[in-house]
Every structure is written in C-alpha cells, then in structure tokens.
C-alpha cells in the first residue's frame, strides 16, 4: 500500500472478499516518501489494519541505482503528457518486482497465500512492470521459487480504468480522502505531474469530486 | 557476488567470455555479513572490478521479515544434513528474487544486457529459488517487466556440481582463496554448517585442497 488511490481500493476489495489484511509499505527514496508513509498509515487505520500487521520497508538501493525522476534529484519531475509513448521520467526501473518480492517473502513467512497489488494496466503505456503479462510471468516465478508454491499475486484493479477504480472505491467505502498520489509535493497536490494527471482524470471521468487539495485542477477528461 | 565460491567462479566465467564486470553485493542482515562484504571486495579486487563498478545494497527487510536462521538470531544455525529433504533452516524466503530484482534494475539503468548469478541447482533440494525453472520464469518476467525487454539472467554454474565449480574456478584462475562461505563464523570457517559442508564436499570430490582455514574439516565426500 503506497498510500495512493489504487492500492487503497485494492485493499478495500481484498477485505470485501473476506481476506484479513496485512499491509506492506515500501519507501524507495522517492521525493514524497514521508507524505506517502503518512497516507499509508492513515489508510491502514481507516481499514482497521492493526499496527502489528503493518510492515514498512526501505529500498534504499533504488535511489542508489537512480535512473528515475522519483529518486534522483538531478532529474526534474516533468509535467504529464498523457498522450506520449514510452516510459515517463518517473519510471523506476523494474520497481514493482522489488515490491512483489518483499510481499512474497513476507507471505511465505506468515503463511499467507495471497499478495494483492494495485497495479493498473492503464498506466502501462509507459510502465512495463504494470502489464498483466508481467504479473502472470512473475506468478510463475513465485510458484517455482517458494517452498509450497501456493502463493499467488492478485491484481484486482489491473483491468480497470482510473474512473472505474474511483467508483469501486466509493462503492466499497474506501478511504480515498486519506490517500496521496502527487509525485512532487507533500502539502497540496500539484495537479500536473503524471500521477496527479492520471488521478484527476479518473475522478473527472467518474463524475466525482477528488476530496484532496490541489494547487491547480486542470481538466484532463 | 556474495563473497562466496559460486558467485566468484560465475564472475570469472563471465569475464572469460568477454563481459566487462560490474559487481553487485547484497547484505540482508545475515550473521556473517561483514565477513562476506570483506570477501566481496577481495574477490572484486582480484577480478579487477573498479570501485566505481561496485554496488553494495542492504536488504534490511529480509531481517525484518525473518523466518531464517541466517537473519533471525532466535533460530540457531544447525549442522548440515546433506541427505535431508525440504529447505534447511538457513533458507531465506524468496531471497534470490530480491537479488535478481536489484541486478535487473541496475542493468536497466546502466544499459547492461546480462545479469549473472551463481545459483547452483545442487543446492536446490532445499532452496526452491535455486531451481533452473525458477530462473526461466523470472527471465520471462524480466522480458515483460523492463522497457527494452533485452536483459537476460544467466546462471552459468546452475547445472554444475560443487566439485565441477571448484575445478572450473581453478582452471580460470578465480580467486577462490579470497572467498568466504561459512554461515556461522567470520574468522575460521566452522566446517559443519550447510554452506561449509557443501563447499568442503565440493573441494574433496574435486581432489583439491580448500585454501581457507577451517575449525574442523569433516570428510563429506
């Protein structure tokens, strides 16, 4: 659970289908990590995940490795270009594999059999590690690389648009007002980075007012 | 490169086939991590890997997650039982997936197209993440989860016995005397933990004297 919209709704879906939630948050040297951690705890509180069921990990090596505007201060966070092809500057190379590996190691240790992740294929025009086929291949690696081979990764929102995710979150009473998505700021969301643009467009297409504050709210839909 | 035998010989093989080496070392809270780091640098020095081509990462969350005698002080390091089935207490859940993910993220950032790992299937009676099929599945996840899809993981010693790895290392002039394998001690290898037992048996079956000091040298072959 990053503290963002997609993982919040994913957690609400997992809970609504009967799973007990254990919540993983990963810091990786991104600019807004303190704000995201705060959002993670606020979302976990709202979903009744006890403190003893939360794990906060630091992947400092993703910042050491660099290559992304999220973790390298020398690369600026660009404004969104939702029509562009290729990965945006915010792409962190192979990031989701690290997050999945932690989730699987934790699941194997606590004898959980499902790892939920809020990956969204709509973002995958630019992020290769958000493609459904990536998760299918990773699931096969999990089956072969763990002792019992019974852990599965689930991506319940991967086929949804952002607007559908917003609507599903509202339907399930997910704490959307506690989430944080902006890559640039930690007090008032900028409204123009990749993440704000995707989020705002989703709320606009769902016809729902985004409850968090923005510096500017361009029309993306 | 853990600082151990298998990754040392793997690096020597990669170099002998024409690759420029960039060396990754991962600490994960294991008991002997300081000794392994020292061995990593000694091996990298011997293989002429410049300091600017080395990356040392800490996976502290593997110790946070626990579940292994390597990272959890409350679980003793047991003596080897090379005939036992199931993973030994030293198994760190899904560990190699974390190491591969770092290697792939680094490779994608520096535009390398191969990630070598010294996984050995002989160990895989107990470690599921040493099975060849795990690497094949992970390679598919790498192809689908990276931008260019051209990075491949190579496991040149995965099909070799420890004795064959020792012989290959000697043939290539790999710095075997600089390596460290013991899970238990940092000055004189114990000779009886899983890792010492596999290593000593390999040297004994190769008919070569292991150049490092041991407290005891049982006959395993």
Protein described:
The structure is a homodimer of 221-residue chains. By secondary structure, chain A is mainly α. Chain A has one domain: HUPs (Rossmann fold, 3-Layer(aba) Sandwich), CATH 3.40.50.620. Chain A has seven helices and four strands; from the N terminus they run αβαβααβαβαα. Chain A has helices at residues 5-16, 33-46, 60-65, 95-110, 132-145, 162-172, 194-206; strands at residues 23-27, 54-58, 114-116, 152-154. Chain A has a two-stranded parallel sheet with strand order 1-2. Chain A has a two-stranded parallel ribbon with strand order 3-4. The longest helix of chain A has 16 residues, at 95-110. In chain A, 49% of the residues are buried. Chain A binds chain B through residues 55, 57-62, 64-67, 86-87, 91-98, 100-102, 104-106, 108-109, 128-129, 131, 133-134, 137-138, 140-147, 149, and chain B through 55, 57-62, 64-67, 86-87, 91-98, 100-102, 104-106, 108-109, 128-129, 131, 133-134, 137-138, 140-147, 149.
Helical proportion of chain A, percent range? 25-40%
Q: What CATH first level of chain A would be assigned?
A: Alpha Beta
Residue runs with pLDDT of under 50 for 5 or more positions of chain A: none
Give the amount of beta strand of chain A, in percent: 5-15%
- Rg over CA atoms of chain A: 16 Å
Biggest β-sheet: strands ordered side by side in the sheet of chain A = 1-2
Identify the CATH architecture of chain A. Answer: 3-Layer(aba) Sandwich
Number of helices in the DSSP assignment of chain A: 7
Question: What count of domains describes the coordinates of chain A?
Answer: 1
| CATH superfamily caption of chain A | HUPs
